Amino acid sequence: MAQIFSKWTNHLPHIVLLGVIFGGVSSVAFVWYYFSPSYLEVGYRPTQPVPYSHKLHAGDLGIDCRYCHTSIERSQEANIPPTQTCMNCHTTILPDSDRLAPIRESFATGKPIQWVRVHMLPEYAYFPHNVHLRAGIGCASCHGNVAAMEEVEQKRPLSMGWCLDCHRNPDMHLRPIDQITNMTWEPPSDQLKFAERVKKEKNLQPPEDCSACHR
Amino acid sequence: MSSMKATSQSAGKTYWRSLNELAETPEYRNILEREFPENAAEMKDPVTRREFLSLMGASAALAGLTGCRKPMDYIVPYVNQPEEVVPGIPLEYASTMPLGEEAYGLVVTANEGRPTKIEGNAQHPDTQGAANSFMLASILNLYDPDRTRRTQKNGVVEAGVAGWPAFVGAWAPLKASLAANGGSGLAVLSESLCSPTAARVIREFQAAFPQAKWVTYEPVSNENIYAGVNAATGAARRPLYHFDKADVVLALDCDFLLMESGNVRHAKEFSRRRRVKNRQDSMNRVYAVEGVYSLTGGVADHRLRLRSTQIGAFAAALARELEQQGLNVAGADAVGSAGGGIDPKWLKAAAQDLRRAGSKGLVVAGRRQPAAVHALACSINAALGATGTTVTYVEPRDSFLSDRNGLQQLVADINGGSVDTLVVLGGDPVYNAPADLDFAAAMKKVKTSIQLSPLADATSRLATWHIPQSHFLESWGDARAADGSLSVTQPLIAPLHESRSIIEFVHFLATGEDLSVLAASSATVEAGAVGNGGTSMDLVKTTWQEILGASGFAGKWRRVLHDGILSDSAYAKVAARIEADGLSDFLRSNPVGDGSGTGMEIVFQASPSVLDGRYGNNGWMQELPDTVTKLTWDNAALLSPATAAALGVRSEDVLQLSLGGRQVELPAWIVPGHADETVTVELGYGQNLGRVSEGAGASVYTLRTSQDPDMAVGVQIEKTGRTYALAGTQDHHSMKQRALLRETTLEEYRRTGEFHPELVHAPHHRNMWKAHDYSEGYQWGMAIDLTTCIGCNACTLACQSENNIPVVGKAQVKKGREMHWIRVDRYFKGDVDDPEMRYQPVPCMHCENAPCEQVCPVAATVHDREGLNVMVYNRCIGTRYCANNCPFKVRRFNFFNYTKTTPELRKMGNNPDVTVRSRGVMEKCTYCVQRINRAKIRAKQEDRGVRDGEIQTACQQACPVDAIFFGDINGNNGTTEVQRQKASDRNYQMLEEFNLRVRTSYLGEVRNPNPELHGT
């Protein structure tokens, strides 16, 4: 009697097994890479209602971050400047520029500008700016070199694992307080020694507890 | 009842929460042994399982379509940022909350212009930094989505016409015609006011309309107290009690700790004499005589159960007993001899104790007792020598106090046709005026009726014009505290709706000048209002210019706004001398009775949840378990076990109560310790104000008459044969018969200093896990003093407000799913007919060996290095193993997405520092981790450690008796208060035998019974 299944079907279980293993591994790899914040979030660059250039203001003109983002050292929130701050200069500088029309309109009507949020944390995560700056973490550590960006984009994944990496070992990111807004700061050769000293001085113990950020 | 047996315990103390527990009924066993009652886990409502699956299917499909794009989020900065506003840093303002005659000094927290949390103002005499649930819940009234938003004419916003300007337009000709004949035909019915600016604008009003009538009415007021003091001293003075000076207090049907005027101040000052720091300390003693179990009755060392109509006879008997003991009590000769029912031994012991305390004794009578009882209390206090120490008298100024006779006269005038324009300021007389007056019928006879109120209530539906009333957080005003101290109400937010406050409205009626918190808009100016660009702040400032004087006004005004109180502005104390002859005459013409009356008695009392109905549409208050009955969302006819047995009534049977030809149907609820032959009903329910109040209870104002507004004899009770499900929480989260509460008497404590160590067998345990090292850094811990705790629920509500805890509704509470993170367990002790009462607040214990952590499969609940047992919402997958394994039953599960349908307006009141939880997530007390983090960050910014007392949990901050202590139990910066408390010999851990090593410990309760009565 003829065989119902030909001989090659003896290998079918192996082929299926291999397929399952390959499929499993590749779907894990797919999710691992493509669903991660480093793939999904980094490089997010929405179009803003006003084509404000950080490169021009903070880079070329050298305005300090804190001229506009005034509350970063005092508050957990980093504020977006009120329209008034723009008008401090732009009543005299480029008062008729078309690109600044939304600013002038906002100032005249009292209707605020709706900026698109770039760095978005989930609502159950609380990030206090003030205490990080106090510890000596520079803006660029999380935001990248904003002074080189025409339009602000997200440069770091801002994922929990990424936060924890630094909380576990912040040594390479600690800088002197007067350097926190320096966008091009590089750790000097004696950085580890400096970090050791500053950790002791300021009693820095970056928490790794859930309750540090989730409330 | 015959199946009831006392559950025994090794120490012979018997605590039980409900009659079901005492009788160990199957219903109770079911609740006890299952985490939630049977079928609670199955989805029955509001969404059926099938519906739920279909909804899930649809939302999954939608998620598939929209999930590919990153959601846009916007940051909207200011155009001109106010100088003091820094995003992320909340601001605190002092203000004042008026509530009838009361004025509560507040500190209100605002996040970017949105008021989010109310606390007491430490400098204000009536709050002293603490709060009660009415203060805390009032923030929800501001964001009530059911508030009326525009002026309505005949129940509608007129099409095509802007609401308020339409009224402005209509008032001008009316005003002219009224003014022409001096305002005759105009009448105003107002709620109680106690404010200099209100007094000033009312003078303006009376100048414009000299013939107009002004009547003040409150359904629950201190009218009897004023009348009693008037009878005794010859003037309607306000008694101020000083419980911090009282060694012996006798409360005659008086819940001075919760429901009487000045309750926060009373509780605060009371706790100072109640606290026992060590074995050498003394404490006060409280006697309570009452028919309806009250919070004060629960705190009392001795409670005499007496029908409310017999309290007068008790007061008379006390007066005579004191006279027999050698005191000269004026009026004692004018009261008859005592009838039966009063325990002579009890009376004698209480009288002796009071007499020995002398000037440190105090007799207080409740506001629902008739004037004669207050007159007697006043006279007894004078005889004790207490006048001037534990009680002082002041003469209120700038006050418009409730006057029932005035209301009666007003209705008579309306029915007689002499009123054609009626203005109702606040209040809801159609709902809460005495039933015999039939205010609704009277109001229909008035040609034009104008009502100012926050919600569309029963009166609004009959009014020609309904004008939305501003909340106190969005209006300018001022108020006088009970002792007369002046404070200002300042707005924290611009009016959310087109509303006016009472003073703005009266000023407009009188002068035609339309002032608001905001400068007049062009629309109102066009509509003919004068509007000179000023705001209603000018109204208050004008008054205060007289108070503060013109020189240096600006500085003084800012000081008052900042402090929330004008120092040294209290009334002068008046020497209230008893006028014996007048008093005797009064007592003869108003006999207190001999207490021998029979027949079923009905007692009307304000609800500790919805008050007189003001909080009817407040979800927090509706869901707050009643302090004694533990009922939510409904009122009931409260009966004693014996009376219920005699009537053949079980809890939840619907009864028909008939009084004077009027009927109301209410479900029965049996309350141990309630007086026999008495039924108590709570006011304030059965309103139709909006989505919350709808269907909650029944109105009993329909039985209340102007002759007997507080209590009456002769009510008939009939069973209807139906039952109505009530949502009581008394059996929820029960921890079985274990030694949870420990107590002793002062005498025993002094002798032994022990708290029944035999109750707990705590063998030496070995840990199954490697213990964490908690020797370094901050280690948070809490201690709760059961001696001072009065069970008032302020902690529960403060926590709800601070931590964005959702309201779940009656059906969910019935299933044991209420979400309160700190609950107040109420226990009865002893005899079922006349038990004692105990309270125990239970938040998360933050065990170091936490049973919840050991069973979580996803590590969603873990320990942090400061000893907090933290709940990570975003990790939780909702297995509920943790709640099952928690011996304290403090974990709460989001069975549904309770916050999904929260209106946008309501969301403004959320605390931005606390995550709003979603469906399928467990939650519980966090020790206010957001406050801990904020304080730690602030300390870090200032290069210092966290100071002791810098972190107050929300429950601790609100607590009016300072029963909750929180802080670092490591004491990094010197010994902390919580360490000192935990070092006390009264300190104990609940369920210590489980080796949980809890962070929340209790200080055992000390009671101070009279040795002469103890053991009876």
Give the averaged pLDDT of chain B, no decimals.
86
Shape of chain A: extended
Strand order of the largest sheet of chain B: 6-19-18-17-7-9
The SS-based structural class of chain A is mainly alpha
Shape of chain B: globular
- Name the helicity range of chain A: 40-55%
The top level CATH class name of the largest domain in chain B: Alpha Beta
Overall domain count of chain B? 4
Task: Describe, in plain words, how this protein is organized in 3D.
The complex is a heterodimer of chains A (215) and B (1016). Chain A is an all-alpha fold and 215 residues long. Chain A contains ten helices and one strand. Chain A has helices spanning 12-34, 37-40, 54-60, 65-68, 83-90, 101-109, 129-135, 139-143, 160-168, 191-201; one strand at 115-116. In chain A, helix 5 (83-90) crosses helix 6 (101-109). Chain B is 28% helix and 18% strand. Chain B has a six-stranded mixed β-sheet with strand order 6-19-18-17-7-9, sandwiched between helices. A four-stranded parallel β-sheet of chain B has the order 13-12-11-14. The radius of gyration of chain B is 29 Å and the shape is globular.
